[in-house]
Every structure is written in C-alpha cells, then in structure tokens.
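Re-running the complex after MR caught last week's input typo. The corrected sequence lines follow. Everything else is unchanged.
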Amino acid sequence: MSKKNATSGYNRGRLLRTAMTVGMLAILFALPYFNHNEYQLDVLVSAGIFAILVLGLNVMTGYCGLLNLGYAAFFASGAYTYAILNVKYGLSFWVSLPACIISAGALGLVFGSCVLRLKGDYLALVTLGFGEITRIALNNMDGLTGGPNGLTLSHPVIRFANKSFDFGIKSLPYYYLSLLALLVTIIIMRRLSNSRFGRAWIAIKEDEVAAACMGINTGKLKLFAFCIGSAIAGFAGWLFAGKQGFVSPESFDFTTSIMLVAMLVLGGIGSISGAIVGALALTIIPELLRPLQEYRMFLFGAIMIIMMLFRPQGLLGGVRIFEEFRPVSERVRQEEDEVLAEDLKQ
Amino acid sequence: MILEVNGLSKHFGGIHALTNVSLSVAKSEIVGLIGPNGAGKTTFFNCITGVYHPDSGKILFGEYARDITHHPAHKVSGQGIARTFQSARVFASMSALENVMVGTFSRTNASVWSALRCSSRMIEEEHAVRRRSEELLRFVKLGRRAFDVAASLPFGLQRRLEIARALATEPRLLLMDEPAAGMNTAEKAELLELIRKICENGISVLIIEHDMKLVMGLCQRIVVLDSGEKICEGKPGDVQCDTKVIEAYLGKEMHR
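Corrected-run output:
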C-alpha cells in the first residue's frame, strides 16, 4: 500500500468518526422536538446524570483500578453543597457550581489521602463504609441537611438583561443542561485519558510496581485520580440537585453506589463510550421493565449474569483503542519493510 | 563508578536474603550478577530500585555518588536507573507503543491543566514522546508491532518491549533480570546484540542471567551471589574456575 493511500484511509476514518459524532449530537439535540413525552425525557435526564457519574467513577475504577463502592458519598457531597448554599445562604444554582465541584474534590482528596494505602478489596470495603457513614451523617445532621426530610430548593433561573427564564419543573431545560454537562465531561475525560496522566493511571492499574519503576509517582497519581473522580461526582450532584429541586439521603444510599459500579462494568471498564452506554442501559432497561413490577429485578439480574458469562469485559470494554497517530505507524511499517527488503537483497 | 553499593543487607523475618553485599558498576560497563536460585539476585535489584528498603548498607549512584538508598521507586527511576523484570511485566491492556510512552512519564512535564486545554506545548511534547517511543520500538525491532496489544505479543517480544520501555526512562544504568529466560538460541543471539548496542550508547548494564554462555560472552565482570552473600567477583574466565562458585552451583566434593 502506498503512503498516500494509507493517509487517505486514515482521513476517511477520521471523517467518518466526525460525521458520526455530529450526527449523534444532532439527534440528541433534536430529540425533544420529536418526542414530547415528559416521562421519557425525564428518564433521559437521569441517564445523562448517571452517565456523568459513571465517567467519574471510571477514572478511579476504570483507569486507576481503585474499586470504589461508596461513590454516592461524593455525589451527595456535590448535591448537598448546592442544597445548603441555596437554602441557608440563598446562593443561586449557577453561582454554587464551583463550590460543589471543589467540595466534592476536596472530600476525595482528604478521604483518598487517608485510605489509598489500602489496596484492592480492602479499599473497596473502606469506601463502602465511607458511603454508608456519609448517608447516615446526612440523615442525622438535622440542623444542616434537614435529616430524612431533606431540603427543598428553588429552581435554576437564567437572568439575562432584564429577562429571566425559570427552568421550572419541566424536563426539557434539564435535558439540554445535562446533555451539555455530559459533553463537557466527555471532553475532559478524553483529554485526560489520552494524556500522560491517562497512560500512567492505566499503567498503575496493570502493574503498580512496574509503573513505579518506570518513574510514576503512584501514590500521587492515585490520589489525583481519586480527586478528579470525586470532583466529577460533585458536578453530577449539583446537576441532580438542581433537576430534582429536592435532596434527601435516600438518593445517595448503597444501592446507588452499587448501581454505578454495575453500569461501569456492564458498559466496559476503562472505556468512555462504554461508561455512557452502561449508564443509559441500566437507567432505561429497568424503566422498560416496569410493567413486570416486582419481577423486573429478576430479569435485571438475569441480564447481568448473562453479560458476565458471555462478555465479561463489558459491552464496549476490552482493549483501549489508540487511533490518533496511526499514520506515523504506517510510516514506521514502510520504513521497516524497506529495511527488510534491503536485508533480503544482501 | 556509576553505581556503588556498599554492604547491602536485607532480611525478611529470619531469612537473610542479602548479607553485606558490595558491588560497583563503571560507566558503559556490562556486569553480570549470577548465582543459584534463591541467592538473592532479584532481591538485590529490588533494593536498588527502591521496591524494597534495605536494612543496612548504602547505594550511591551517578557521577556525584548521590545516596539513593531509601528513595522510593519512582525517584530512583528519575535518577536514571531503569529495570526489566524477571517475568516480563508489560502493561497488558495497552498497545506496545503506549507501553513505551509510559516510560517517558518522568521525562515529560505537561501539567493537568495543559492536558485539559490541549495546549500547543503539550501537543508538541506528545508528538516528541511518540516519535521517541517509535524510535525505541524500532531499536528493539518491534516497530511493526507498535499498535499491537502488549498481551498479544509472544513472550520473547514482551521482553524486548520491556527493554524499550525501560530505555524510554532515559536511564544511565539498566538492570536486567533474566532477560534471556525462555528464549531460543536465535533470540538470545539477537538479545546479546541488543544489549551490546545499549551499552554502546553509554548506558551501563547490570544483568542477572542463568545462561552462562550469554553471561560469559557479554559481561566484562561477573559477581556471584550465593545465599545472599557475595562469594566471588572477577573476569568471566576467573569466575568459571573459582572453587567457591563451582561449589555453589554443583555442591561440595565428598571427602571419604
């Protein structure tokens, strides 16, 4: 194959990918015009928020291999930060965003620096405990969090000049907001995972000793993964609280944490598209199975078991695809072919 | 001297894995470290690279003989000591190219912020890293396999990938732990060639190897360990004739 062909083939692939991305975005943005069903839109908003959460969890568990069974705690930290700022101090939805991200990230940093000496199952157990402690604390700190009654918040409002737009209780504005938030998260994740940090994280997951011997400060990078992961959970929590207009400890229980891990595993650990597909699937499938009432959990369990039997790496999981610089590789191949040909001549 | 180890000792509970081992490696020198199984060779490597902390002794590295005795592994690597492992420990799910790129971590300094912004400096650095990594892959004759998943490579190639990855950390000293294990004669000959080339580039090599033919042909100096103690040091020919070494490998002659 000539060099020219190789490059154009690569460009074609890139063009196709760009076209697919644009097409998908167009469909997602246009969806509410074709589908006015409030309930379905609401499910999609939830799916979007879960997708953001799973992307955050993916940094810890998918890239860095730190199993976190208490991820809902960081989600709660973002949601409650907004709720408390809104109820007690009257701060608006938009103004409290940085506080939500920082508070969750700081929680991850402090908690992570305490527990990241632990490995594997032990880390999973401690995070599980932390998740439960957080929920119980939220339940009992009546003065601050409203306890089991939760907190009711005002809706997000956009003020521009002297016009204002209230998000209200309809799903449509939240749909676009969560879509936008998801896009931002995807871009951040893509850039991080293709950077030297992404490579270092995966190296740590694969073999911590080998990674350390390659000059990676494993402790620092694990803490960084923990911090980024929890900051993203804070972001999702902010969005969730704004959309619900209400927060209570129930939303951040153990089941939520487990569900998030299940989404990640179903979609494919360590894959960005996998995390999104997993979140969509595990939000939508239980809704579709609603007619089966209590029995739906059986079917749900069956799907998970079948998945683990036939595709344990998850729907889109498996091997990291690293496409960006293929043309360089084509060049390498050609050069080596030339060298080989010369060797044969001699 | 690029590496100077003085009186290194390490014990695990009651087992003395290393007792008072001293060793030095000069610039561009290939030193062999041999000994029967369980002699403490790999423990010695682990102590130097900061995977284990030695109980006593000093490890000095570089022209200015910096004390790196209790440095953590990533700092030792940053100083310029790279290693390969006894059982090729490549990052299985990554491509061969990415494996090598991981090795450049401590030699690059793009910040998180520049990674998020996709700043031009960061992109430039990534390109440089990629070019360098591809060069290294070609150096170990793995250029064609750049985009193959490391786990899919045969064992012999995984070992060469490990060497490329270690070289990506820009070491001045390369520690190789049984690089020829499980290789056939042709592969061993290629490995010998490769190690010589590495040495020509000004990198010192300390190599653990059981294949005597390879060690004798490659090393300028050989150190023999037995049950954690240094029993002999010298030129390949001298070491081969040393009675203590023969005893360690073959056992004592019976006197009836």
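None of the earlier attempt is carried over here. Chain A has a mean pLDDT of 85. Chain A touches chain B at residues 188, 191-192, 195-197, 199-200, 202-203, 206-207, 209-218, 224, 270, 319-320, 322, 325-326, 328-329, 332-333, 335-336 (CB under 8 Å).
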